[in-house]
Each structure stands twice: as C-alpha cells, then as structure tokens.
Design brief:
With 140 residues, this protein is an alpha+beta fold. The strands form 2 sheets. A two-stranded parallel ribbon has the order 1-2. A hairpin with a 2-residue loop joins β3 and β4. α2 packs parallel to α3 and α5 crosses α6. The protein is globular. The termini are far apart.
C-alpha cells in the first residue's frame, strides 16, 4: 500500500480561510490559558466585506474580557475599535523612527477615509463617519 501525502493547509486554504482559522485558534487559546492581552497582527489579511466585519465583531466581543490589540489596514476592522492609533515610520540615513499617535474622533474619520479611499474627500469622509458611528454602536 502506498502512503498518500496530504497537502498542507497553507496550500489548500485561501488567505481568508487561514485568517479565520487563526482567529478561532487565538480565541480558544486565549480562553484556555487565561491570557490578559492578545495581539492580532493583520489577522484580516485576504478578507473583505462581511468576512472582515465578522472578524472585527469577534475581536470586539473578545475585547470585553481581555485587552485586544489589532494591526489592520482595513477601515471596517479599525472602525470597530474602542481606540485607534496611527503608526508612522520615518527613515533618515540609517535610522528608522516609529511614532504612535492616538487618534481622536475627527482624526479617526480622516484616517478611515484615507484607508478606504487613498485620499480624504467629502464622499470618503461621509462614508468613514457613517462606518465609525455604525460600528461603534455595535454591541454584539
């Protein structure tokens, strides 16, 4: 009898499927190990729309019992956060400096518009404000 080699999960699952699997595993392990803080570093890679919203909602729900840090480039995910920070990296000569800025509501709206649209204009600002207001009121 010949042994059959199964392909690894990273070759058969999509990026979105891997993201959801990692989210699920982190949630399970957070509960089992009684961690106080969990970090999601671009857990939403490869997803968008309703799937991104579902991931954001799961993280928001999780944040009710433990501290959650999420690094994201998706405005829908950022809009669910209780607090939003902008990370800026600058390089001069051979030195890189990283700054972390806490954003107030107006700054968040600007940043969400920029994340979604690549620019800040009236349409983007209006959409970003609606997104933020809608997702900040989400209770799950």
């Amino acid at each position: 009898m010949m042994a059959v080699s199964e392909p690894s999960i990273n070759k058969t699952a999509s990026g979105g499927e891997l993201s959801r699997l990692m989210l699920g595993l982190k949630v399970i392990f957070a509960k089992l190990t009684n961690v106080e803080t969990i970090i999601f570093d671009e857990i939403d890679t490869g997803v968008s729309g309703q799937v991104a919203a579902a991931i954001a909602q799961k993280m928001k729900f999780l944040s009710k019992t433990i501290q959650v840090f999420a690094i994201t480039h998706l405005p829908i995910v950022a809009s669910y956060a209780n607090h939003q920070y902008k990370v800026i990296k600058t390089t001069k000569d051979d030195t890189t400096v990283t700054s972390v800025i806490s954003l107030n509501k107006n700054q968040r709206i600007n940043e969400l518009a920029l994340m979604a649209n690549g620019k800040i204009d009236d349409a983007g600002l209006s959409a970003a404000q609606a997104l933020l207001e809608s997702n900040q009121s989400w209770e799950g």
